[in-house]
Specification:
Layout lengths: L5 H12 L4 E6 L2 H9 L5 E3 L1 H9 L9 H12 L6 E4 L7 H13 L4 E4 L29 H18 L4 E6 L9 H11 L7 E4 L5 H10 L4 E3 L20 H7 L3 E4 L4 H18 L1 H13 L14 H10 L6
Parallel strand pairs: 1-2, 1-8, 2-3, 3-4, 4-5, 5-6, 6-7
Helix pairs in contact: 4-5, 5-6, 10-11
């Protein structure tokens, strides 16, 4: 793998700046990325929340280090031929940390990252509140606009030294963070887009899709929102508040639809069900699962050749002695 993955950065830049909108699923492992690519998506996103769960077994708390993110990203990049970009939380600390973080990400082969404008560490969701109900971190506190701008400028300096096409995304958490609000989120986004080298804006914590539309109209750079927007909210009758459709998001100008846990939520639930089921019913739980899979349409049955064996077979046949000799 090259030290700088310039082909991937160009591809991701094109996705963010072309006409229309693109759905991009997220995850945090090589396996997730391989499935996303095999299913036909054009890019893969490494989720900070998912990385906390898989690498640490912790909730999303800002405790994954930038080098852990970069190392994990490097392993993922090696397995797919689509651009991979990643959460970078707060960039690892102050502006100097953000400068190093961007360099580590570029050296890892990642095509882009987003950096937040909240304190380091950003902390965890308030006790008693469902994660993601109004954005990921209800007790995070925004840093000053001056500090946030300085951090992004340092990140730009790092990417210009290595790869100007590296996609730098300014994530804006002001809508829900302590010391913020909707107007502050717009003010910050408009300041961030004036920094040469910032490519994309990301908003976290918008309360309604109408707020999202207003945010899109208030800025000029490509922008998008946290993919779990409203997904954990219920109305007065207890029903789930529906997510805006892919078509609605595209029509209103959202540049990518980031589905952070697409695939993981379903797989986690399925894994939990068969683990609990096996505890209660033994092999019958596995037999029932196989029957359910067999009933699914062919296109929904996961191919057995993920990942493919052919490259390893070819290497074996080319370079290993014939075992029959």
């Amino acid at each position: 793998m090259p030290l700088v993955n310039k082909e991937a950065t160009k591809q991701l830049q094109e996705i963010f700046h072309r006409q229309g909108s693109t759905v991009i699923p997220g995850g945090c492992t090589q396996w997730h990325a391989i499935m996303v690519e095999r299913a036909g998506y054009e890019a893969f996103y490494i989720s900070g929340a998912m990385t906390h769960r898989w690498l640490l077994g912790w909730t999303d708390s800002g405790t994954i280090t930038s080098t852990e993110f970069a190392d994990n990203g490097a392993n993922i990049v090696k397995c797919v031929n689509i651009p991979v970009f990643s959460d970078a939380d707060t960039g690892g600390g102050n502006a100097v940390n953000a400068y190093r973080t961007v360099k580590e990400y570029i050296w890892a082969g990642l095509a882009g990252c987003h950096i937040e404008d909240v304190q380091f560490p950003k902390g965890i969701t308030t006790k008693g509140q469902e994660y993601g109900s109004i954005g990921g971190h209800s007790n995070a506190r925004i840093i000053s606009l001056e500090e946030a701008v300085g951090k992004l400028r340092a990140a730009v300096a790092a990417k210009r030294e290595l790869d100007r096409n590296f996609v730098l995304i300014a994530r804006n958490d002001a809508r829900n963070a302590i010391g913020g609000g909707f107007d502050e989120a717009i003010r910050r986004a408009q300041a961030f887009q004036k920094i040469p080298g910032v490519d994309v804006l990301m908003f976290d914590g918008m309360r309604t899709w109408e707020e999202c539309r207003q945010a899109i109209q208030a800025v000029k750079l490509p922008c998008f929102f946290t993919g779990t927007l409203f997904s954990n909210q219920r109305d007065a009758s207890g029903k789930w508040v529906p997510l805006p459709t892919v078509e609605q998001r595209a029509k209103d100008g959202e540049k990518i639809y980031l589905q952070v846990g697409l695939g993981l939520q379903a797989s986690d639930q399925a894994a939990w069900e068969i683990l609990v089921g096996f505890k209660k019913r033994g092999e019958q739980a596995v037999d029932d699962w196989r029957v359910d899979v067999d009933k699914k349409p062919k296109e929904l049955q996961m191919p057995s050749d993920i990942p493919p064996n052919e490259p390893l077979w070819e290497l074996q046949e080319t370079y290993l002695p014939d075992p029959t000799d």
